[in-house]
Amino acid sequence: MRRPRLSTFLVIINVGVLLLAVAGVAVAAAQLLRQFADEQTLARVTQANTTARQELQRAGEDALISARLLGERPTLQRLLQTRQIGELTQFLAQFQQTSQLDGCAVLRDGQVVAASGAALPWHDIAAQPNKAGEFLYRAAPNNALIQGAAASVASISAAQVLVARVLDDAFTARLSSDLGVAISIEPERTTTQSAARRDDLGLYQARGPLIDQAGATVGTIVATLPTTSLAQSLQQLSRTLLLIALAVAVLAGLTSFLLGQRLARPLQALTSAAARIGRGDMTTPIGVAPGGEIGTLASTLEEMRWRLLRLTADLRRQQAESQAIITGITEGVFSVDRERRIRYVNPQAAALLGLQADTMIGRFCGDVLKPQLVNGARPCAEHCPIIHARFRDGAHATEHVQLAEGGRRTVVITSAPFADEQQVQVMRDETERETVRRLRDTVLANISHEFRTPLSAQLASIELLLDQLPTLTTDEIGQLILALQRGTLRLTQLIDNLLESARIEAGRFAIRQRPLALDEVVEAALELTRPLLTQRNQQVALELPFPLPLVSGDAPLLTQVFVNLLANANKFAPAGSTITIGGDVTPASVTLWVADQGPGMPQSQEGALFGQFIRSVGDEPEQSGVGLGLWIVQTVIERHGGTVTAQNNAAGAQVRVTLPRPAGW
After folding, report:
1. Which of 536, 558, 560 is nearest to 548 (CA)?
2. pLDDT tens, position by position, 119-176
3. What's phi and psi for 552, nearest 5 deg?
4. What CA–CA distance (Å, rounded) separates 79 from 159?
5. What is the CA angle 423-425-426, rounded to 5?
6. Separation CA 565–CA 493 (nearest Å)
7. Residues 417, 393: contact at Cβ < 8 Å?
8. Which domains does the chain have, with CATH numbers?
9. What residues have CB less than 8 Å from 214, skipping those under 6 apart?
10. Residue 366: is its pLDDT beyond 70?
11. Residue 83 region, left (φ>0) first, then alpha (ψ -120 to 50), else beta?
């Protein structure tokens, strides 16, 4: 009998030992894997249960933050104070969508003022006690839980806002999708957390109490996974182990030695080459390797190296070209991330703002540009073109930014939509020529529209004088000349307001501070408006305190203020009525007011009347003006350090002007 060769003997020994080892390992592994799989699955559902409760806790905290932010919104406070319910409901709907809530409501004195989203029992929810503003509410045992928070409205007593999410099947479905485990919320209440394999249900199940902010259990969170997937996996694993054992037994002795020696050296060379490419070395070529597969791998790596080398060169060239274009244009360019922090800025934008480019990177764009305040709030909060561009195809806005040395500059900012985790803005300096042209167009447009009626009336009076002068009596000629004087006075007032508006828009509006007597200012304004008052047979009653103290200011500008106020009272007060000019004096200020006996102002428009080109929404007289009078009044008074307010009184409308008294006068 021929003795087996040593290599054959070693192969038989190795294969036999390997088969015994694989069989023993397979049996033990199957048991251990089942036990391990049970433990891991129970740990997974337990962790999912804990995570779900933490997610609900974080959702409650997020709801509390949203409620507080909503309660502090100036827009909500203004709409609630003015009881603009329709606009308030739209504002709540917009806040609900942006905050991903199911419902929002505003309550005052326990009554629902406005609500949006799902129809929820807001009154019952508000009556529930809660801790730190958060709540978990269930209207009935079979109803879904409602999670949310309440917060008071700043500066408005007995008012609060409520925000809520409904923990319904859709919510648990999203939570299950995020965690990869089926999550459900049951009305049954449990006090302890438990996890077990329920063979009767064919599930791995973890149960944990859902506790509200007051410490009471309001339900049970259940996380489940089916056992069928594990059983199938274990069966498949057993079959796989058996096949692996047979395959390894057949191939181990035959291929281990031969392939080990044959593959080790070329694979080591290819590994070193791949490591060089990973370190960025694209210039060292990869040598030819023996064998079909290894040779193909080597040629593929070489082709990849060559393509990466060309791609890197192209990217560097494109980057250089883009940098040359951005740095070569005259406009400033900067980009921001999702939080509006500046990620890139070209030298032109830095020079435009008077800053160094490296000091701008990473900062919030509003803190860098410092746009001019609008109505006491920075445009970044509600009128940011960057935010608007994300919901449109782009945005275009004119901003007055503050420079590093303290000056201001008007720029036009064009914002592109958000893409590739950044948003590009182009900032163009609005030159003095463009400003002058824009102001010229505005003035010409208003002149052509507003001057047509008074000029037509004057032309008719002149034509009447020319045609019928020999037959007119002295009184009739006087009436026509008086009408021409009144029309000229109205045109003069319109021209003065338009020119003053242009000066303010161009930034050439300066106050000449001089000591002046306010009674002389009032008398000058009365003289200028006397023909208008006489035309409508209106009387002026003076109720000024005597003596009026001196103030510091610009007499011609303050005269124009009272001319505008008297002209407004003349237009809106009925013929034959009395216009009252009164005032009072305190140690710190002097207040003068002009009151008429007209219909008064609409309550919703009292604050808006001081805007530029704003007219009353009520019955407007024929000589309506261009809507600049009260805007100029407010601008002049604020430049003097004072305030102006408008309100309705028992007889009509009243506008109050308050000026500070200089210390020591």
Report:
1. 558
2. 899 988 888 766 568 888 887 878 888 989 999 988 888 899 999 999 888 888 888 8
3. -105, 130
4. 13
5. 155
6. 12
7. yes
8. 10-226 (no CATH), 232-323 (no CATH), 329-430 (3.30.450.20), 436-505 (1.10.287.130), 514-660 (3.30.565.10)
9. 129, 130, 131
10. yes
11. left
525 near 559, Cβ under 8 Å? yes
Q: What is the mean pLDDT of residues 381-408?
A: 79
**Using an 8 Å Cβ cutoff, are 25 and 251 in contact?**
no
- For 17-33, how does the pLDDT look when each residue is reduced to its tens digit (9 = 90+)? 767 777 777 777 777 77
- The CA–CA distances, whole Å, from 607 to 375, 561, 615 equal 11, 18, 12
Q: How confident is the model at residue 439 (pLDDT cuts 50, 70, 90)?
A: low
Burial bucket for residue 448 (CB in 10 Å: 0-12, 13-18, 19+)? exposed
The two beta strands, 182-186 and 217-226, are antiparallel
C-alpha distances out from residue 466 to 469, 471, 478, 572, Å: 6, 11, 14, 33
**C-beta of residue 147 within 8 angstroms of C-beta of residue 108:** no
**Neighbour-count burial of 594, counting CB atoms closer than 10 A to its CB (0-12 exposed, 13-18 middle, 19+ buried):** buried
Q: Is cis: bond before 662, omega within 30 of 0? A: no
Strands 134-137 and 342-345: unpaired
pLDDT in tens, 441-492: 665 665 665 566 566 656 766 777 777 778 878 887 877 787 777 667 767 7
Sign of the CA dihedral with 566 first, then 570, 571, and 572 last: positive
User: Looking at the chain, how many residues does it have?
Assistant: 665
Residue that is written with structure tokens 């020079």 in the block: 351
Cβ-in-10-Å burial (0-12, 13-18, 19+) of 425 comes to buried
How far is residue 656's CA from residue 212's CA, in Å, rounded to a whole number?
53
Q: Computed from CA positions of residues 88, 91, 97, 100, in that sequence, does the dihedral angle turn out positive or negative?
A: negative
